[in-house]
Specification:
333 residues; alpha+beta; Rossmann fold; OB fold (Dihydrolipoamide Acetyltransferase, E2P); 6-stranded mixed β-sheet; 5-stranded antiparallel β-sheet; 20 strands; 25% helix
Amino acid sequence: MIGISVKDFSISFGDTKILENISFDVVQGEIVTILGPSGCGKSTILRSIASLQDEYKGDIFINNHCLIKDGKKHCHKDIGYIFQDYALFPHLNVKDNIEFALYKLDNIEKQKRVDKLLKQFDLVEHRNKQIHELSGGQQQRVSIARVLAYEPKVILLDEPFSNLDSILRNKTKTWLKKLIKDMGLSAILVTHDQKEALSMSDRIAIINDKKIEQFGTPQELFNSPSSLYVANFLNKINKLPESLVKSYGIEIDKENVAIISVDKIEVSSSPSKIKATIQDISFCGDYYEIEVVLEEFENVELLVKTTQGDFDNNQKECYLNINKENIKVVRKN
């Protein structure tokens, strides 16, 4: 069943167009990520779905109910919104923050619901603590528990992990992804973090120039990007010079460009391979990043990510091996 359906969504602020003709669906138990640079309108889509923004064209359906019908706005109770800054009440303790969403229930039912959530979110021992006494991860769990307290069918996540350190972010992502699946929620995640989008999502919509550039599974977008923009946004890639590409028997026209992922170029000791002049070597722990120039191919600069061999900053040359099957031809714009 489709939980969220956005049809021909367009919005402007004054004379500035933000988004044009955006359409996508989110089914139950699915996480769809809206990915794009800051200021591209990602959060505007969430705010409109949450009925916090209504000056848009097009339609938004929640469980087949249109949010704006016959000119009237219908704020939908099935929507839960998790903000970047958690939006917790600092003057209330953990239990009272969660209870705040349950003001329509009687006291007995309210306490049952709160106790269940405290246990589910591993917050029982923190129930009487003030918000400032909690870690970032604990505050995040309180925020999510409060949103899920009134049992929404749709959950909107506006960069929910941005205030967490990398270790806690990974743990929280895994936990939240499982929670969404187990509860059968329809979820939209907004982020500018490519790795977060790839690891969390069932499908991804990449926004570019006010429209969805490409929409599909993480594997589809990563392995078969439709354009240079999508390829650049999801991965570190190199643009290859036309003279090099032609040597592989690949013809490209002026509308397209040949690319290769930085980790698909092999470093070789064989002089029969492509000679490269090393500009910089960066040791990155379990791999090296090497910046090189191909003097015989238009002096193009490439970045190579490799785990092969040991390198030192005095090394001036190396040889590269590029396999034809790793070269992709994508649209320039």
